[in-house]
Amino acid sequence: MNSRCTTRLTFCLAVLALPASGPTAASLAQQVAEEVDADIAAGTDLRFHGRGAAAPAFVRSATVAGNYTDLPAQSSSGPEFGHAVAIDADWLAVGAPGTLVDHGAGFGGIKPAGAIFLFRKQDGEWIPSQRLTPATFGLAPRCGQAVALRGRHLLVGCPGTGSLPQPGNLQGGYAAWHLDQDTDNWEPLAIPAQTTAGSQCGHAVALTGPNSDGMTRAAVGCPGWNSHQGRVLVHAFSDLGGSWGAASARTAGNGNSNDRFGASVWIDQNSRGNGYVRMAVGAPDKLDDLFPQTGRVYLFEGSALVEAASLVGLTSQDRFGTSVALAGNTLVAGALGSITSQCSSGSCGRVARYVRQSNGQWVFQDGGVAVNVGGTPPGVQPEMQFGSAVGIGFDNWIAVAAPRTNGSGSSLPPAPVANVGMVELRRAGDGSASVDGNAWQAELRPGVVTGLQLGGGRFGTALDFSSSHLAIGYPLSGTLIGGRRGAVWIYEDDRIFGDGFEP
C-alpha cells in the first residue's frame, strides 16, 4: 500500500492498486485488512482509506467545537455537540441537545434544554457566530436534536419539550430563525408550531432551498403522535409575505400505532417555481406481514404532497427508514437494524438506493452492507448500525454512517474500542451514483484512540453535505482531562491534497 501523509502527520491517504473491474465488498475487506492492521500496529493515525488512482482526497479542513464556559457544568455524558449537523454555503449549524442550560426556576432550572451553535466560514476558517439556547418547558427539551439549514432559514427540533402544566408530556416543539443579511445575525422567526401531548415533534426536521417564486418548505417529524403512529407537519414560507404559514399534516395511508412515521424526514424541491416537490418519510418501526419493526419509507409528491409510494423493509427488525436522503429522482434510505448473511446477531445495518422512473414508480437500484476496511475487526460488525445517517452530496457522492463501529486503541496488539464510528463514501467507478459494496470508494473515521482519549465517540451520528463540504458529527468524543464535549469534522473535496487543518 502506498501512503502519502501531510508533514504534520495528521492525515493519511491510503491508495490501493485495485483491479480495473473493482473488487467485491468481501474481497476488498480481505485485501486491505492486513495493511490496516499493520498501519495501526505502527501507530499511523489513519483517518482515510481511499481506493484507486482516482480516489477522492476528502481532506479534513476544519474541526469545530462548542464553547460552554458561561454555562452550568455539563454532565459526564456531555452536551452532545454534533448530535445533529446542517451545512449550507458558508454557514454551519450544530445541535447539542444534551447541553445543560439554566433558564431560571420558571423553566425548570438547570436541565438538558439543548443548544444550537452557528459557525460562518470566513477567509477559509469556520468562525463561531452565535449560540442559540431556546427557553422551553419540559424536563429535557433537547433542543438541537435535529437541525436543518438552507439559504437564510434555520429550523430546530426540540422533541422533549413539554407544556407548562405538564412538563413531561413530550409534545415536542420546533422553532425557526432567519438570517438578517444586514447584521449577519440569526433572528427568531415565528412559525405556528402544532403539537399535541406525546407527539415528540421536532425529532426530525428538514428544509428545502427556495424556488424561483421565493417559496421555502419545512417538514417536521412527530413520530410519537397518536400512540406513536406518527405524522409530519409541513409549513411553507413565502418571501412575498415574509412569514411561515400554518402547518398541514401528512400521515401514512396505512398507518398504525407504533409505526413512528416521521422518525426521519427529507423534503426537496426544484428551484423552478413550477418544479417538483417531493418528501420522503421514514417509519422504521412499522410492522409488515407480522414482522415487527420491518420499517417503511413513504414518498409524497406534488405541491400538495400527496402520498405516491411506500417502500418496505426486508426482514423483522430491519428498521428500514431509520434515515432518508432525497435529491431529485434519487432516494437513499438506511436500515440500521438489518440482519444480513454477513451478520446474524443484529443491528449490523444496510443501505438502499431507489430511483424514480418516468412513470412515477420508485424502483430499487442497489444496496449493500458495510465494507469497513479500517474497523477492528474489519468488515460487518454486530451492532455497528450502518445506515444510521445517510447523505447525497455533490458529484454523486453518497455518505453512509455507522456510528457504533468498533475501532482500535493504541495498545499493542491493537485492542478494540467500542462505538468509535465511521462514515463510508460510495460512488460507482464511472462517477454515477451507487451504494452497493463495489461502489465503496473511501471511509472517514477517527484515528487510533489513545490512552488520553475517551472511546465511544460515535463519529457519524449525523452528517450533511453542502455544495463542496461534508460535515460529520462526533458528539460523544472527548478526553480524560476535558470530558466529553463533542466535535464536528468538516471535509472538503480537495484533489490537490492540501493539509490545511489542525487536529
TrEMBL record:
SMART domains: Int_alpha. InterPro entries: Int_alpha_beta-p, Integrin_alpha_N. The keyword Ribonucleoprotein does not apply. Keywords: Signal. Residues 1-25 form the signal peptide. Transmembrane segments: none annotated. The keyword Signal applies. Gene3D superfamilies: Integrin alpha, N-terminal. This is FG-GAP repeat protein.
